[in-house]
Amino acid sequence: MPSTRYKRGELYAASMAAYAREMAEDNSAQVSRLKRNLARALREDITPRQRMLLTLYYAEGKNMQQIAGELGVDKSTVSRTIKRGERRLQRCLRYGAAAYLGSLRE
Fold first, then answer.
1. Which residues, 6 or more positions from 90, have their beta carbon under 8 angstroms from its beta carbon?
2. CA distances from 68 to 34, 62, 74 (A)
3. Does the predicted TM-score (pTM) go above 0.70?
4. What is the mean pLDDT of each run of 10 residues along the chain (106 residues)?
5. Nearest to 58 by CA among 83, 34, 37
6. Which runs of E-coded beta strand occur in 43-99?
7. Angle at 72 between CA 66 and CA 78, to 5 degrees
8. Please, are residues 93 and 85 in contact by the beta-carbon 8 Å criterion?
9. What is the C-alpha separation between 68 and 64, in angstroms, rounded?
10. Which residues fall within 8 angstroms of residue 63, CB to CB, at 6 or more apart?
11. Of 51, 57, 102, which is closest to residue 79 (Cα–Cα)?
């Protein structure tokens, strides 16, 4: 079965957004909270290098080979750094979001 983990593009994003809207009655508050937490995690919880590579990869749509060529490093270095950043963001959003949101309510 092909992996869709790194599948990107407007069509994919649009279909995932439509699916999310259909599956949830009104998740706008949750999506808004997730966006705020993601922005905070990107600013505070990952290294500057991870932030730069994640931005080049996801926001600018460059592939790992292009990024590696621009920075003069091996493609595997780019891949490892992106994976570490993703894992760190996942942990922050999964475990840190509840504590962070609880502190906002107090």
1. none
2. 30, 10, 6
3. no
4. 53 71 70 83 90 93 96 97 92 68 50
5. 83
6. none
7. 60
8. no
9. 6
10. 57
11. 57
